[in-house]
């Protein structure tokens, strides 16, 4: 029985150690910073991510900067959290980007695959003025997410 447990433990440890993130398709592509701030992209419907419940319960604010590639066919690939004050903010930010209305952009909008970054500031119960997080999460293309607790009677 101990031998079986030892074998299973070794198997799980080995399996976890050998699994890795899929290779990035556009790893060598240079980042075009603040791309979505230009007037060409103003028609893109962007919305903030859901404020992570864990952060609401703990009254946490924070940020995340996410890098991603917009392909010629307006698909979002190679999503990577490059900076985050907390992993829950990075996860929420990475999940929302593919949900933006990319397919509604004009056909000529993305002539070649383009890599860019977006910063997300998560503010709890107040207006987002988190200049202290500028060192943690780089970027001028910022999407603000506000969280607040609702009282249930």
Automatic annotation (TrEMBL):
Keywords: Signal. The lineage of its organism: Bacteria, Pseudomonadati, Pseudomonadota, Gammaproteobacteria, Alteromonadales. It comes from the Bacteria. GO terms for biological process: transmembrane transport. Residues 1-21 form the signal peptide. Residues 36-131 form the TonB C-terminal domain. It comes from Thalassotalea agarivorans. This is TonB protein C-terminal. It holds the Pfam family TonB_C. InterPro entries: TonB_C.
